[in-house]
Structures are given as structure tokens and as C-alpha cells.
Amino acid sequence: MKHQLDFEKPILELQRKLDELEKHAESHSMGIRCEEEIAAMKTKIAETRRQIFAGLGAWDRVKIARHPKRPFMLDYVALAFTDFSELHGDRLYADDHAVVGGFARLNGHKVVVIGTQKGRDTKENIRRNFGSAMPEGYRKALRLMQLAEKFSLPVISLVDTPGAYPGIGAEERHIGEAIAVNLREMMLLDTPIIAAMIGEGGSGGALGIAVADRVLILENAYYSVIPPEGCAAILWRERSAAAKAAEALKISAKDLFALGLVDEIVPESPGGAHNDPAETAAALKASLLRNLEEVKKLSGPDRLKQRYDKFRAYGRFTEKIETPALAAAASKAASITPAAEAAKNNVPPLPSLLPYALGNSAAAGAALQL
User: Fold this and answer.
1) Per-residue pLDDT for 28 more than 60?
2) Angle CA(117)–CA(82)–CA(91) in degrees, nearest 5?
3) What are the Cα distances from residue 124, in Å, to 117, 161, 328?
4) What are 195's strand-pairing partners?
């Protein structure tokens, strides 16, 4: 099987045995009919696949997200949307083929769908720039989102990018500014926005089209501030530590959901979206519809406030003190007040400046005279 992943080998061995069984129609020496053996083998394959994929680590999920047969943005548009009409260009410089967008229908909802698109072969990958957008791609996306706002159309963003393009041309045309403007404008966009990570969600390149009311993620997609290889090169000085970096970054769908960075995990077909794109697209469509209908019920001000609060909460966490020694030290430090420390060292306590902070200048002056 082409493009097999290392952890899929047991499944492929069983699949080969199943293929051999299906070539023979006669009964075997044990008297078990071939049809019964085939059914038993299919059950075993399904159970093996379930067990393997239930225990995958973050780095294995990254491999699935990058699978060359995985459905891309336009595949989901074809399977989950209808009446798609693509729009081109940023009206400033050029048309970036890594970013695709246009009008479409999601069941009964008229929407604007945008996203990043990779290529299936070398020629298409060069045309799509391997899914890495240029500044003009982000400006095209913003133009389409503002068009959606003008006509009161929801925005659906399907993200699958290793990151924004870091080349000289992109820097000359101010890619950092283009992404920053998108972040600001999407936060203020007065129309529902639903974003879904369908493959790779790399750094600001992903966030530049993912400031949304709801952020969904497919089961085997990832969303990260830096690719695991880049993190490994910085922290461990070797790209071979990518698996360790992936675990440390907490970039899998399960970790992201636990951290509150995504709102929902969309299940994929058994074995990954590439095994049954239609089944995964149906699950994604159902999730998009449900979340879109919920967001559309909110008033404009409430929707914008929830969106702002959602992203302002990113990065907040509570650090737990795990070791007894650290816990004892923290407890001791918390019990020592400035007055107690001053009394211990025979130092007069400093006067309280609270009246000054509260605006009572007379009381503050008296305190300072003590």
C-alpha cells in the first residue's frame, strides 16, 4: 500500500490476508466457510484499527494530518457544500492560489467559504505553494470576509497549512502586517465565523484566517504555534526530536480541547479521513451546521463580545505545585507578611499607602508624615 504509516503495518498485514481470502471461494480444511472467515477477518481489522488509533501519540497525529491522501480544502467543499463559486485576487497585488474562497451553500445557509489548499502532485503543489499563503492570500481572504459582512453572510474557514510562506517576497510585501490586520479585522467582523482545522494548523498562518466564534478541529488534525520540527531544532538542536516536541507542544485535538483552545473535536472515519473522505465530510458538515445555527442565534454585540473574550482567554493557565518541598516553601512564603518580617528584623513597618491609592490625599499625607 502506497503512503503507509509505520503504525499502520499490523492493519496492512491483516488486509493482505483478507485480500487472499477473498480470492478463494472454496471452504478450508477446518470446515469454516470462506465467507465466515472473511467476516471474522474484517471484524479483526476493524478492532485492530480501533485499538491502534485510540493509542496514537501527538507525533502520529501529525503524520496523519500530513498524509498525502488526506482530503484537502476543496475536497471538503465538493463533499459538504453546494453551488461553490470561486472568487479571485486581493485587488492589490495578485491572486494567491494557496488561499481559495468564494460563495457557497451549506444546506440552506448561504455562506462565504475560505481556506488554504495544498496540491496532490509536484506541479499542483508548486502552484498552491504547498498550502503556505503569501500576503496577497491573507488580503484576498480579508476581502472576501468583508464582502460576506456586507451581505450578512456567515464565513466558514477551512484551515490546512504548515504556516505562512516565510520567503523574501512575502517579507517584502509585509506578510506580518497582512496577518496582523486579519487578526484585528476578524475580531471586529460583524458576521458569524466558524473555523475548522482540517489538517495542519501551523502558527500565525493558520490563525490569520481562524479568528472565529467557534473553532473546530478534526480528530487527527493539529494546531500549533510552531511545527514540531522547528520546535525540536530550537530546543533540542536536532529535528529528530520532533516526536518529543510534538508531545510537549500539546498540539493534538484532545490536548487542545482540554486546554480550551478549540471548541469541538470532529470525529474522522476509522483509520483517518483519507480512508473515507465522504464519512469525514459528513461529520464535518453536521458540526458546521450545528455550530453555525447556534452562533446565528446570538445578537451582534453578544457574538462579538464572546469572540473577543474567547481569544483573550488564550494562554491563561493554572500551574500546579506537585512536589511536597515546593508546596511547603510556597505555604511558608504565603504566611510571611511584610509586618511580620519587619517585626522579626526589628525594622519599623512602612506606612500604609492605601489612602493615597484610594484618592484620600489628606489621609495619605498623614500616613507619609508618620
Assistant:
1) no
2) 50
3) 10, 15, 60
4) 157, 215
Cα(141)–Cα(207) distance, integer angstroms:
12
User: Alpha carbon 187 to chain centroid distance?
Assistant: 17
Residue 344 clears pLDDT 70, i.e. is over it: no
Contacts of residue 110, Cβ cutoff 8 Å, sequence gap at least 6: 103, 104, 153
The three cell numbers of residue 125 are: 503543489
- 297 has pLDDT over 90: yes
Residues 264/266/267/271 CA torsion (nearest 10 deg): -120
C-alpha–C-alpha distance, residues 322 and 173, integer Å? 48
Burial of 347 (0-12, 13-18, 19+ CB in 10 A): exposed
Closest CA to 81 of 53, 106, 117, 55: 106
pLDDT tens digit sequence for 104-133: 999 989 999 999 999 999 999 999 999 999
Place of cell 503512503: 3
User: How are beta strands 99-106 and 109-116 bridged, if at all?
Assistant: antiparallel
Model pLDDT, residue 270: 83
Q: How far apart are CA 198 and CA 206, in angstroms?
A: 11
| Confidence at residue 331, expressed as pLDDT on a 0 to 100 scale | 65
Q: With cut-offs at 50, 70 and 90, classify the pLDDT of residue 161.
A: very high
For the chain, the maximum distance between any two Cα atoms, rounded to a whole number of angstroms, is 105
Single-letter amino acid code for the residue at 97: H
- pTM score, whole prediction: 0.77
Report how far residue 12's alpha carbon sits from residue 17's, in angstroms, rounded to the nearest whole number.
9
Per-residue 3-state assignment (H helix, E strand, C coil) for 314-328: CCCCCCCCCCHHHHH
The full DSSP string for 95-160 is --TTEEEEEEEETTEEEEEEEE---SSHHHHHHHGGG---HHHHHHHHHHHHHHHHTT--EEEEEE
How far apart are alpha carbons 129 and 94 in whole angstroms?
A: 14
- Partners of 266 in beta bridges: 218
Calpha distance 47→41 (Å, rounded):
10
